[in-house]
Amino acid sequence: MSTNTPDNDKKNDSTQSNDHQNNPKQENKASNSLGDKLHDLKDEFGNRIEDSKFESWLQDIKKEVGDSIEILTHKARGVFNPNLVSMELEDIQSIILRDRPTPYFGTVVALKINNAEVGRQMLAQVLPDVTGSKEWHKNMEATLSVVMTYAGLEALGVPQSSLDSFPDSFKVGMAGRADKLRDNGVNAPQNWAAPFGEQGDVHVCAAIIADSKEKWQVKLSELKNNIKSHINKDDPESGDIEILMEHDFGSDNNVKNVFGYRDGISNPEIKGSGIQTPPSNTDDAIAAGEFVLGYKGEAGTIPPMPQPEVLGKNGSFMVLRAYNSHVAAFNKFLKDNSESDEEAELLGAKMWGRWRSGAPLVLSPDHDDEVLGDDPSRNNDFGYKDDPHGKKCPFGAHTRRMNPRDSKDFILSDVRIHRIVRRSVGFGEVLPADVTEDDGKERGLFFIGINAHAMETIEFLQSQWINDGNFMSLGEEKDPMLGVHQGDKDAAADTFTVPADPIRQRYHGIETFNTLYGGEYLFIPSLSALKWISELS
Q1: What is the spatial distance between Cα 451 and Cα 455, in angstroms, rounded to a whole number?
Q2: Is 379 within 8 Å of 391 (Cβ atoms)?
Q3: HEC-encoded secondary structure of 510-523
Q4: Calpha distance 159→162 (Å, rounded)
Q5: CA-to-CA distance for 517 and 382, rounded, in angstroms?
Q6: What is the pLDDT of residues 61-102, one digit of tens each?
Q7: 3-state helix, strand, coil in the chain (%, to 5)
Q8: Radius of gyration (Cα) for the chain, nearest Å?
Q9: Distance, CA of 155 to CA of 152 (rounded, Å)
Q10: What residues contact residue 221 under an 8 Å CB cut-off, 6+ apart?
């Protein structure tokens, strides 16, 4: 029984599905045989493409190594051009500039420092394993990233004069900024789980990510070996270092979130990094200073950074938000508000802004297109100026809210300064679309956003673009996927509007499909800063 209340009778939308599927064995064989050749070609083609487009680069590679290289290039989210590098890549942690691999496997470990001297010793021990951004395009080994909270900097003995130079929002922390983030109701800090916010005391987070289970486990073992001598297994709280959380994550070759939708497609290109992202007709490279401290931002000036310079430069800030995803409830909402599987798939795509394959609605408004969704040279190359009324992609769709691109009434310069590098990772199994009862298994998302002023950026996104609709002339409507909802069929805030001919459709009673259970504001030190901290006395 359909429970949405359209303003007119809905027309049946036919959804076509593409039967194209990748053959994992064939992928692995091609990858093994072409891997060495691809590495040999990377620098050569990087030098060639300074003024060329991504598609031209793909065509050149195909001439060298054959069409089967598509198996690898379809996975590529960026091309490295050494001619365009103007940043100190060797000093910048790879998580800032380097996209996650496909597939990916990893672990995040949260630590509490109970002894400042031992904490600094630990940093010195792990520092050789922390991954920089130089030659990221060649290095396919597992990466290690180390980040810390304001309380962590205090616990490590960073001088007060340096602590005072950090932004106030970072000092207060995510839980203390809940009102700015609209983290209320089920998302309020008092409902968070340990070790986040007031429920714990996260000081340092270490994240490992790799493209294979074997590399992941080797890197994780190295990290554990470096900290195990500082841990008291019998009485963890009395140890010099305490492990508060160890949480695995990962995704297969499809790289889909637990809702079944391809994730991690759209990230900004950072000027000076040398990394040229697949084409997007609204995204020119954004000034380095918007993402990495110590460089000029979009305004042409270098924003303030933590002091001394060795501590701040080449670092950045990270937002970590941990969500439990209620996929069965989402599936049920789609089925309750549609009259066929095809109509349910279309509604889901309207709420996300993309089909499950990753194909954007603007380029394929009526049906999924798996070939398009799997093609990084096309699946992000679009804008919204030719969809001024939102009839292809609704104004309230998650992807359109988070990146309005060239939507009418939006100034692209303003959109650019609110971009964020997303390194989000999922955990748990993808739940099939026909499952509408919760199976009790843990599944969700670690949202990871990186920006030189990440706290202010996420607070803007949360308060304006996610939990409000006025910027899209949608009144009280919120983001259907990340907004805080009550499931109230009479509440305007729990409504999702889909423009249509002749009259729009409205879907009521949206629930909170992703519940926040914790988060932190984190500083990403440069490798030089980690060394500086480790040598404090």
Answers
A1: 8
A2: no
A3: CCCCEEEEEEEEEE
A4: 5
A5: 34
A6: 545 544 444 434 434 456 788 888 999 999 999 999 988 888
A7: 35, 15, 50
A8: 23
A9: 5
A10: none
Residue 275, phi then psi, degrees to nearest 5: -95, 115
Taking CA atoms, 165 is separated from 88, 209, 290, 311, 447, in Å, by 22, 31, 18, 10, 26
Beta bridge pairs of residue 335: none
Q: What is the DSSP letter of 137?
A: T
More confident residue, 65 or 327: 327
Dihedral, 265, 170, 462, 387 alpha carbons, nearest 10 = -40
Mean pLDDT in residue range 233-249: 95
Name residue 204's beta-bridge partners: 111, 148
Rounded distance between C-alpha atoms, residue 312 and residue 315, angstroms: 6
**Tokens read off for 279:** 């084409």
DSSP state, 431? P
pLDDT grade for 59, boundaries at 50, 70 and 90:
low
Token code pair at residue 440: 């009790």
**Residue 213 vs residues 98, 217, 242, 397: alpha-carbon distances, Å:** 19, 6, 26, 35
Hey, which residues does 13 pair with through a beta bridge?
none
Q: Of 424, 347, 355, 502, nearest to 13 (Cα)?
A: 347
> CA-to-CA distance for 352 and 361, rounded, in angstroms?
9
Report the mean per-residue pLDDT for the chain. Answer: 86
Query: What is the rounded CA–CA span in Å between residue 87 and residue 313?
Result: 11
> Side-chain half-sphere of 398: how many Cα atoms within 13 Å?
16
> Which ranges of 14-167 does DSSP label H, i.e. alpha helix?
24-48, 54-65, 70-73, 94-97, 116-126, 150-155, 160-163
Closest of 508, 489, 488 to residue 498, by C-alpha? 508
CA proximity to 510, closest of 344, 261, 329? 329
